[in-house]
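The material for today's practical consists of a large collection of protein records. There is nothing in a record beyond a sequence line and a structure line. Backbone structure tokens are a discrete shorthand for how the chain folds in space. Nothing more is needed to start thinking about how sequence determines fold. As an example, a complete record with its sequence and its structure tokens follows.
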Amino acid sequence: MIDAKEIETVIPHRGDMRLVDEIREYNDTSAVGIKYVRDDEFWCSGHFPGDPIMPGVLQVEALAQTACYVAFARMTDAERAGMLGYFTTMEKIKFSHMVRPGDKLELHVELLMTKMKLYKFHGIALVGGKKVAEATFTAVIQRADSGQ
């Protein structure tokens, strides 16, 4: 198991925007990540106050961060220094069930294609073995934008 500290050595997300707590397994083409959905998450107080559900866009982001781990773990420290992954497409997104504080979100991703700096993944998110979200997405891995 790879914990949050080690995940932060591979992917660039920090603070409230790092949505993957553990990587349970991974190889060059797939990974299983875990997100423990807590009641102190930044979105809980504003997304249906009193009855919070995890926004679907954050579920897809958690899948993408798990995929980011696969893409970046394939690189050496020197190769990934200063690199970021940016969404280019999101397709076939489906949400089946609500995700609430207290849930353990299992994030299964599989690399479908890589071409130069483009990586295409399919991801499925589960809670208690039940599919809650699914998406196919593509990202480009490139140097961080200098703002120009």
